[in-house]
Amino acid sequence: MKLKYFIDTNKGVTFLAILGLMAFYHQWQNPTAWIYLALHGTYGILWVLKSRIFPDAAWENRTSLWFGLLAWIGLMLYWIPAWLLMARAVRAPAWFLGLCTVLFIFGVFFHFTTDMQKHTSLKLHPDTLIVDGMMALSRNINFFGEFLIYVSFALLPMTFWAFLPLGIHIVFYWIPRMRRKERVLANLPGFEVYRKKTKAFFPFLF
Length: 206
Hints:
By secondary structure, this protein is mainly α. The protein contains eight helices and no strands.
């Protein structure tokens, strides 16, 4: 089976998982719970649509059932902020809800537009280094966008523990994948010039 099937199903049921937590902890009258559902639940649906319209080649690889299930369970860690929010009945101030929503919107913009550019560019010009558009902002601008998205989720429960799943994924998955990507891109003409002109992750900073 393709790895994307495991990832997409997890992302797709995230909305239902959060809705279930809202029901279990009786958070129907909590505006913060509804904002969380709107942000994280919508992201899962958008991910599935993105996977169908402009899929990432990395997720098209076939994988074993056991590795796929392990990936599915690993992605469940991202549901921890929702559990922390619902179980503790967190009610964030209005300005804080606005801040998280803004972070989410910018995150979706950077993440999805970059993936669309990458998909289109590689379809038209395979094995070519992409150095313009979104890729001119940083070499991993799609990861930066995803970072903003998950930060917006982690902030809403208003506890440090909500950042733990993101930290685990950054250390054990994001950083190794970004390093592998750099090694592959290093074989393409012009990479060294591109590397010196751009930041590795955060636009204009580092």
